[in-house]
Specification:
Layout (H helix, E strand, L loop, with lengths): L25 E3 L32 H20 L3 H13 L13 H9 L3 E6 L14 E5 L5 H11 L2 E4 L3 E4 L3 H13 L1 H5 L24
Parallel strand pairs: 1-4
Antiparallel strand pairs: 2-3, 3-5, 4-5
Helix pairs in contact: 1-2, 1-3, 1-5, 3-5, 4-5
Length: 221
């Protein structure tokens, strides 16, 4: 799902967390939120004009916790590796041999993508903006996703807790000036999992109109 990037000679040899130049704004037009049409979010649909889109809907919170832990261990290896390029090459090889791993997502945003999926959102694009040394398409870390209006309050609380940006109308974009904050957002979402689970994804049934006594009552069942 991430824009991704191949191995690059630009990978640094001493790890330092980059700071991205982006203003943090939290503003959501909840009444304008959209949702993918039926069949529009399936595999190879290119949702959100992302040619690398993969359908990662309806993943579990258990999976979100697994990816968060795995991602954390991989990042710790990058932080302590004597040669970042060599360590990343080793990690890439390991992930390519894994059935699940981090679903082919960029390191640093993977746990947020999976957590948003567990929170009944539809993530469709993500990028770590080269936070671990490679050149990527985006200029700051982000995850773009569709969300239910009922989830806005919880999403906003998690974004504020993690000090990340969160804005949009048709769809939302979570972004940060530091890749570590994106993971803090994922952790905050996981903590709120019981509240996300309580969100209703279907509209409440509308009350049937009253029928006047002099009208025929038709059996509808």
């Amino acid at each position: 799902m991430g824009t991704g990037a191949g191995r690059s000679s630009a990978i640094q040899t001493v790890f330092r967390y980059p700071r991205f130049d982006v203003s943090i704004v939290r503003k959501i037009e909840a009444e304008q939120l959209g949702w993918p049409a039926a069949g529009a979010a399936g595999h190879d649909s290119g949702l959100g004009c992302n040619r690398m889109y993969d359908d990662l809907r309806r993943l579990s919170w258990a999976e979100a916790k697994r990816v968060f832990a795995l991602e954390g261990s991989l990042i710790a290896r990058m932080e302590s590796g004597a040669d970042i390029a060599e360590e990343w090459a080793t990690i890439e090889d390991e992930l390519s041999e894994s059935d699940q791993g981090i679903y082919g997502l960029d390191l640093g945003v993977a746990s947020t993508v999976v957590s948003l999926s567990a929170a009944k959102c539809v993530p469709f694009s993500s990028c770590n903006a080269g936070a671990f040394g490679e050149r990527h398409q985006e200029i700051y870390p982000l995850v773009a996703f569709y969300a239910l209006a009922q989830a806005v309050k919880l999403l906003s609380e998690s974004a504020e807790e993690a000090a990340i940006g969160l804005e949009g109308n048709d769809y939302l974009v979570a972004y940060a000036d530091d890749i570590r904050k994106i993971r803090e957002f994922a952790q905050s979402l996981i903590r709120r999992s019981p509240l996300f689970n309580a969100i209703r994804t279907r509209r409440s049934p509308q009350p049937k109109p009253k029928i006047k006594e002099d009208q025929y009552r038709l059996a509808l069942e």
